[in-house]
Amino acid sequence: MQDAIVIRDLVVDRGGRRVLHGIDATVPSGTVTGLLGPSGSGKTTLLRALVGVQVVTAGTVTVLGHPAGAPQLRRRVGYLTQAPSIYADLTVQENARYFAALQGRGTAEADRAVTDVGLRAAAGQLVATLSGGQRSRASLACALVGDPELLVLDEPTVGQDPVLRAELWARFHAMAAAGTTLLISSHVMDEAARCDRLLLIREGRLIADDTPAAVRAATGVDDLEEAFLRMIQESESGTAGRETS
Ligand SMILES: Nc1ncnc2c1ncn2[C@@H]1O[C@H](COP(=O)(O)OP(=O)(O)OP(=O)(O)O)[C@@H](O)[C@H]1O
Question: Under 8 Å CB-to-CB from 52, ≥6 apart: which residues?
């Protein structure tokens, strides 16, 4: 399987501090890959590097065969930021249609994206009047609307109820089955089990790049949260050994 993303030795400093310490990872095409890690571990910084909006100190990031941020990638990569980036004084439908037009897409695609995120009933509502969870789904609709080859989603299910979260994950898998690559960040470990592959990050270092089944097998525990904790403990004892040598 071809890799949609190849990250080699990626080092990023922010605010004079190193936040990514030489990340090596790949994301295979047509998969749902989860980027999991505690708050502040560097998930958003890594996603920013992938979409080409983060100054990097060292290393390379190759996306769909091009350097991250290359102009050829503009329409091929969709990015959902954590803060909803849509117009508060337009309706959900107007936002989706606007972003569709920017991508050279029609109103039918825009309306389908609104339906896909469960907002059909609120399509005519001004974004300013939506709940927080609805607003982030409206923003997600605008990221989906161009049907990009790679979707980079920063915590797309935050603030959603369990039914909607399940529906969104089903939608993500349907897109992957149709060939889209999805990289989805989350700090909710129960979402890890929904991913085809996992990148587990802690304090700017990758501690696993594997399938959920392989993570379970390597740690000998079924619960992925517990498995993650074990990997952290192992990586910390390994780091302690290296630092004293
Ligand atoms: N603009 C900035 N200037 C300086 N440091 C920053 C900046 N943005 C983030 N950082 C720092 O970089 C580190 C990684 O932050 P990042 O936002 O990538 O983490 P995260 O894993 O996405 O966290 P969360 O799950 O809370 O969103 C943190 O220590 C954070 O304080």
Answer: 61, 63, 67, 68, 69, 70, 73
175-194 pLDDT, tens per residue? 999 999 999 999 887 889 99
**Which ligand 1 atom minimizes the distance to the CA of 187?**
25
| Closest CA to ligand 1's atom 8 | 14
All domains in the chain, ordered by first residue: 1-76+187-245 (3.40.50.300)
Is the pTM higher than 0.80?
A: yes
Nearest alpha carbon, ligand 1 atom 27: 39
Centre of ligand 1 from the C-alpha of residue 204, in Å: 10
Looking at residue 243, what is its pLDDT? 43
- Please work out whether the CB of residue 37 comes within 6 Å of at least one atom of ligand 1: yes
Question: Does residue 18 line the site of ligand 1, with CB under 6 A?
Answer: no
Q: Is the CB of 204 under 6 A from ligand 1?
A: no
- Residue 146 Cβ inside 6 Å of ligand 1? The answer reads no
